[in-house]
Design a protein that fits this description.
single chain, alpha/beta
Length: about 325
Amino acid sequence: MVTRREFVQYSAAAASGALSLKASLLRAQQAGPLIRRRIPSTGEELPIVGLGSSATFRAVANDDDFSSVRAVLAALIDNGGTVFDTAPVYGASEEVAGQIVREQELQDRLFWATKINVSRLGGSVEAARAQVETSFERFGKTPMDLIQVHNMPDFAAQLPMLEALKEEGRIRYIGVTTTDSNLYAQIAEIMRTAPIDFIGIDYAIDNREAAEMVLPLAQDRGIAVLNYAPFGRTRLWRRVAGRDVPEWAAEFGATSWAQFFIKYVAANPAITVVTPATSRPANMIDNLGGGAGELPDEATRRRMAELVDALPAA
C-alpha cells in the first residue's frame, strides 16, 4: 500500500512536470471503484468523493504557476472522480480551473458545481446574473451542472433567476449552501419550501450538528447534499498530529486519517458527495480512497467519533 507521504513525493514531482502519475499507481490507494450516490430529484449518480476549491486549492490557483491545479484536476478525473465544487469568491480557483478545463476539453468529464454570492455587490439580481454569465464563460459548457446561492444571502431574490435558467436548460440543478450552524434553521425552511435539488453544508466527525436536523430533512425532502469541510478545514489535522490511524480502521478500509474522516462523513446516507479541498494530486488520490470499498456501520461510526472526541481540541 502506498502511503500518503510517498504520494506527496509523487505529487511534488508531478507538479514540476518531472513525473507522470500513472493510473495504475494512483489507484493503489483505492479498494475498487468509487461508491456512487443518487441525486434524488433525477436519479443521476455521482462518485461519492469530489474536489473542493477553497483553502489550499485556492492558494495555488492564486499563484502564477498552474501546474499544481492541472495535476490535481487530472488526479480527480483519471481516477473516477467528477464533482468539482467552486465559487467566484474563491479567488482565482474558478477562473484558473475553467481555463485548464477548456484547454484540455474536459468539460464533459466534470460535474461543475459553482455558486453565486453578490452580497458584496449590493445583492442585486443584475449582479447575480452577471456573475452567473462569467461562470458560464469560464467553464465553457452549457448547461452548467449546478449553481447554488452561496451562504444564502438574498436567496428569495436569486431563486427566480436560477429557476428561469433551469427552465431554459442552461442549469441542470439549483441549490443553496451554508457553513454556519446559526443559519441551519433558515436553510431548513428553504429546504421545506423551495424547489431546490441540492444543498451544500459543513459536516465532519467533530462537527456533527448538521446530522441532527439538516441531513435527515434532506433525505425526507429528496435533496442531494454536497459536504463541505470534512476535515474541519485544518482543525482535524491539528487534532491528530503525530498520531497513527487506529489499527481497527483497516476493518473498513481506511489507511490514512483522510480516509478515516471521509468515510465517517460518507457513511451518512444523506451525503451525496464529499468535497475536500486539496492542492496536491497525492492527497486527491488519498481522498478518493475514502470513497471506495467499505463504509463504517453505525456502531463503528460511534467508535470513530468517540476516538476523535477524546483528543485535545484544536
